[in-house]
Amino acid sequence: MNPLIEKINKEQIKTNVPEFRVGDTVRVGVRISEGKKERIQFFEGIVFNISGGSVSKTFTVRKKIGNVGVERIFPVNSPDVDSITVVKKGKVRRSKLTFLRNMKKEYKTKERN
């Protein structure tokens, strides 16, 4: 690979990202700008999917609000993602939890050490 591209990629990668897997419950702080003001809004849910690698790594977080499931995709290295906090470590047997879309009730994961 081109050394110039590698140098730019190393500058873009965040180093303070905690280790998390699919099935973990995370709280993501997202920077939202409304006019001239800026605030941080938290989105807490189960990690549904992790894809990509290096600079283009993304993860999907799913939560239920009432009876409606909401999914949101976050780039790990985005400047808009302020913080990622692992609330609970879950143990699952799949790498993509797409079956959660069809479930009516809430999904409970087993605790991982």
Care to describe what's here?
The protein starts with a helix and ends with a strand. A hairpin with a 6-residue loop joins strand 2 (37-51) and strand 3. The chain has a domain at 23-88: Roll (SH3 type barrels), CATH 2.30.30. It has one helix and seven strands. The model has no long low-confidence stretch (mean pLDDT 93). The chain is mainly beta. The strands form two sheets. It has a five-stranded antiparallel β-sheet with strand order 4-3-2-1-5, with no helix packed on it. Strands 6-7 form a two-stranded antiparallel sheet.
Characteristics of this structure?
two-stranded antiparallel ribbon; SH3 type barrels; 1 helix; 5-stranded antiparallel β-sheet; mainly beta; 113 residues
